[in-house]
Amino acid sequence: MVSFFTDQPIDSAALVRSVLRPTDGAYVLFEGVVRNHNEGKQVESIDYEAYLPMAEKEMARVVGDVRGAFPDVATAVLHRLGHLVVGDASIAIVCASPHRAEAFDACRMMIDRIKQTVPIWKKERGPDGEEWVGWQCKHD
Amino acid sequence: MKVRLLYFAVLRDVTGKGDDVLELPEGTRAADVWQRMRDEYGALREYVHPPMTAINESYADAGQVLRDGDELAFIPPVAGG
């Protein structure tokens, strides 16, 4: 089984080559990158971690849903884990399609769904300290 | 019965460990285990309701009754991408 995760820098060009078919007229490549600020705080690096076996399953579920919604679109997705610095790509998604509209829509659906359900966490580090993103909002 | 409890992200920092094996009475629900964690760790006291819950690598309702050999994880707010 091909993993959706890597601890190495992402080679987006290779990801594109892995999905592109002669019938495709367009592909959309989305990369999420580490930015130097979040909610008013400076960010120098982010550590990503995942509940790996479950994250693979949830990622496969998202990919399956996107393919169900866009049957003509070929997809690939790779999420990086570990220590990333500003400018590093944390995720790359490729959606290739005979026509561009479906490629854009599929790519948008893919990243939105991944952010909602796949058990991945990030700890931001900066001059003000470190914190797990999302934990501040209380559950009561 | 024995249940393996996994700690990720902020919960690993709070507990200082990656996992535990818990000896629990029959009928224990995932939410009961969360309550037990809140009793044990002051940093979790204000989090009345558990984060999302996973049993055996799938999302589950916190009210689900655990079974012997289950793998339980509380999933803090996810932040992929």
Describe the fold and architecture.
- With 140 residues, chain A is α+β, with helices and mostly antiparallel strands.
- In chain A, 31% of the residues lie in helices and 36% in strands.
- Chain A is built from three helices and ten strands.
- Chain A has a four-stranded mixed sheet with strand order 1-6-8-2, sandwiched between helices.
- The relative contact order of chain A is 0.26.
- With 81 residues, chain B is α+β, with helices and mostly antiparallel strands.
- Chain B has a single domain, classed as Beta-grasp domain (Ubiquitin-like (UB roll), Roll), CATH 3.10.20.
- Helices cover 21% and strands 27% of the residues of chain B.
- Chain B has helices at residues 10-15, 30-40, and strands spanning 2-6, 19-23, 52-55, 58-60, 71-75.
- The radius of gyration of chain B is 12 Å and the shape is globular.
- The interface between A and B is medium-sized, with 30 and 23 residues.
Task: State the gist of this model.
Chain A has three helices and ten strands; from the N terminus they run E-H-E-E-E-E-H-E-E-E-H-E-E.
What is the third-level CATH name, the topology of chain B? Answer: Ubiquitin-like (UB roll)
CATH class of chain B: Alpha Beta
Count of alpha and pi helical runs of chain A: 3
The CATH superfamily title of chain B: Beta-grasp domain
Shape summary of chain A: elongated
SSE order of chain B: EHEHEEE
Major sheet attributes of chain A? 4 strands, mixed
